[in-house]
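Bug #2210: token dump truncated for NAD(P)-binding protein?
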Amino acid sequence: MSSDNPSTRSNEELRATSLFDVSHITAVVTGGGTGIGLMITQALVSNGAKVYITGRREEVLENTVKQYNTGPGSLHALPGDVSSKEGCMKLAKEIEEKESKGIQLLVNNAGIARDDNTKFCMLHSG
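Reproduced locally. Full output below:
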């Protein structure tokens, strides 16, 4: 039983399943099919969230859904390109059509290196 004092919580309220329950969350993770975005996606789905993953490579997204849509939340591919305003607007409209109550979480994870100062590269020694 919870008291009105926020510093006093029942053991049940402090269980990991209560603390990390996101079953009430609908999320969008850009770049959610690989790397850090995939790890974020897995954590959300594993704790009950409905997650849309976006990215430019539809095949990668579909494979991610096949592999990681194991609940208790759900995982959905939404191909798109967030590198332009038009691409962002298109994805926003698609989400709006699918989720009439909107989303509760947006993880802006997608990134693209465009210049020599931000590119990652592997140097091969010969």
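Output looks complete on our side. Residues 122-126 have pLDDT under 50 and may be disordered. Marking as cannot-reproduce; reopen if the truncation happens again.
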